[in-house]
Write a structure and sequence with these properties.
CATH class of the largest domain: Alpha Beta
Helix content: 40-55%
InterPro entries: Peripla_BP_I, SBP_2_dom
Subcellular location: Cell envelope
Structural class: alpha/beta
Strand order of the largest sheet: 3-2-4-5-6-13
Number of domains: 2
CATH topology of the largest domain: Rossmann fold
CATH architecture of the largest domain: 3-Layer(aba) Sandwich
Strand content: 15-25%
Signal peptide: 1-21
Shape: elongated
Order of helices and strands: EHHEHEHEHEEHEHEHEHEHEHEEE
CATH superfamily of the largest domain: Response regulator
GO molecular function: carbohydrate binding
Family: Belongs to the bacterial solute-binding protein 2 family.
Radius of gyration: 21 Å
């Protein structure tokens, strides 16, 4: 898990200092009295969660005098890198990115900072590798490694004598996929009573891909499967379809996200638990942090939203998400 550190944003001194001196009217206005700060959301809008996350930004952005546009990459890492370059050329002041390829986007961030040192870059929901943090200003999201570890502990609690688990990962190479897997294995490696029968990642965060992988697992392992760790709740929807079509009962499914599908499936009893990723909380936090930067304040490099573990026992304590 990354350590949360506080960094001093020296690169913003020019922007903030001149703004308060009255020389940068756009930056000064972005703090509430003048022209709104121009920001852009760079993400894969074909990922069901991302339009909802953007909706949360739109819900609150006026309170911070910020206008946020969208550059959609459709899950294409090369397109996302090109969108970052386009945002730099278009003089956006704040670029918000949910990296499609955690390592691949770093070159685009580095080029952006070299071209315009005062530009603010933040990552959302997923982050760049540790050694590339200097190329973005802050991260807001859930701790994906912890999410994987919590999922592992849910299985340990459910199966005190151990069992056989298959893992279906999210989009291969996506930071969330990498960390959720790493967190899961970091716990499971110390529990020899559990056997990980198989692990396979999808090409995209797509329900039908998760279903196809689960169908293959059922063909290969059948009733040996006690449980499934699937990296996202909409993927769990596909897993449930495969399990039901095969007539298998009692397979315990744990997903991550806490989206509407996850809530519905927990209520129906087809999914044991979902680990909730609260995009409303994360969007507000991002707006708060960029406002602090513009005011010359220091902010933490890594900002983790609290995770809620939702099961049938406590689901009525939460508001059902829209996405």
């Amino acid at each position: 898990m990354k350590k949360v550190i506080v960094i001093t944003f020296v690169l913003l001194l020019c922007l903030v200092g001149v703004a308060f001196a009255g020389g940068n009217k756009e930056a000064a206005g972005s703090q509430g009295t003048g022209k709104p700060l121009r920001a852009v959301w760079c993400s894969a809008m074909n990922n069901e969660s991302q339009p909802f996350a953007y909706k949360m930004f739109k819900k609150y952005m006026a309170q911070y005098n910020i206008e946020i546009s969208v550059l959609d990459d459709q899950g294409d890492a090369a397109k996302q890198a090109a969108n970052v370059a386009q945002a730099v050329a278009a003089n956006y002041q704040w670029i918000i990115v949910n990296p499609t390829d955690a390592a691949g986007i770093v070159t685009a961030f580095k080029a952006a900072k070299e071209a315009r040192p005062n530009i603010i870059i933040s990552t959302y929901s997923s982050d760049v590798p540790d050694d590339a943090e200097r190329y973005r200003d802050f991260f807001v999201g859930m701790d994906d490694a912890t999410a994987g570890a919590v999922a592992a502990n849910a299985f340990i609690e459910k199966f005190p004598n151990g069992g056989n688990i298959v893992e279906i990962g999210g989009q291969a190479g996506h930071n969330a996929q990498i960390l959720r897997h790493d967190g899961f294995i970091s716990v499971m490696k110390d529990h020899p009573e559990f056997k990980i029968l198989d692990i396979q990642n999808t090409e995209h965060w797509a329900t039908d891909e998760a279903q196809s992988i689960m169908e293959d697992f059922i063909t290969k392992y059948g009733k040996k499967i006690d449980a499934v760790f699937v990296h996202w709740d909409n993927g769990a929807t596909g897993v449930i379809s495969a399990v039901q079509a095969a007539g298998l009962n009692g397979i315990v499914i744990v997903g991550v996200d806490g989206c509407k599908a996850g809530f519905d499936q927990v209520r129906e009893g087809t999914q044991y638990a979902t680990i909730m990723n609260n995009f409303e909380t994360q969007s507000i936090a991002s707006l708060e942090l960029v406002s602090k930067l513009l005011a010359g304040e220091k902010v933490a490099s890594n900002n983790y939203a609290e995770m809620d573990i939702v099961t049938l026992a406590n689901i009525n304590e939460f508001t059902t998400p829209e996405w």
